[in-house]
Amino acid sequence: LGVTAGAYILTLFATKHRERVLGLILVSPLCKTPPWAEWLYNKVMSNLLYFYGMCGLIKECLLQRYFSKEVRGSAQVPESDIVQACRSLLDERHSTNVWRFLQSINGRHDLTESLKKLQCRTLIFVGENSPFHSEALYMTSKLDRRYSALVEVQACGSMVTEEQPHAMLIPMEYFLMGYGLYRPSQLGCSPRSPLSPSCISPELLSPESMGVKLKPIKTRISLEV
Question: Where are the transmembrane segments (predicted)?
Fold first, then answer.
């Protein structure tokens, strides 16, 4: 499982070593060279880091990139615990390492041609408010539809794993069932998740109730486990 730049690294590894990868779970993935707007944005942040270090403006830019407005808060609503924790973690990061990260992400290569040859199962999550939303849609369009599925999470930024992890449970359970890594108990309930499909009414499984929008892309999963 990889998020944004981590998803790019995992995808790159999978394209180069296809025999060693069975499946990918990607969150707000990157797969193309950065568009000019993102490149310029990263360049400005890199220059600010170089001259001023991890200043407040840099933190705000990074938080806006990874979290939605709902959790970042406003003048009337305080920011969530998740954002506060992330802000504290940014205080602990060396500005030089963040600068190197931005330089690397700005120099990434296009994986479009390699994606067409990727045949491992791929499950993609992306928040509808993520700045990488369009790139996730683009990546899904280039993958083989027999092996891939896309889940768009409403009112969420790039960090679906932090903002709305509950929206990932059911898609991930079905994804893992294809590998025999998850077996429902005799009662038909997931031992780890109260959101198992057999434990809740069908009405609650609607995309609106789950807070997700499921794209009509079928995942090649065998239900005989």
Answer: none
Sheet strand arrangement including 212-214: 2-3, 23-27, 121-127, 148-153, 212-214
Three-state DSSP class for residue 21: coil
Strands 121-127 and 23-27 come out as: parallel
Cα distances (angstroms) measured from residue 116 to each of 85, 143, 147, 217: 38, 6, 11, 16
Strand partners, 122: 24, 148
Tens digits of per-residue pLDDT, 111-121? 999 998 888 89
Nearest to 170 by CA among 146, 145, 198: 198
CA-CA-CA-CA torsion for 18, 141, 39, 129, nearest 10 degrees? Answer: -120
Q: How far apart are CA 142 and CA 223, in angstroms?
A: 25
Whole-structure pTM value: 0.77
pLDDT in tens, 118-171: 888 999 999 999 999 999 999 999 998 888 899 999 889 999 999 999 999 889
Contact 162, 82 (CB under 8 A): yes
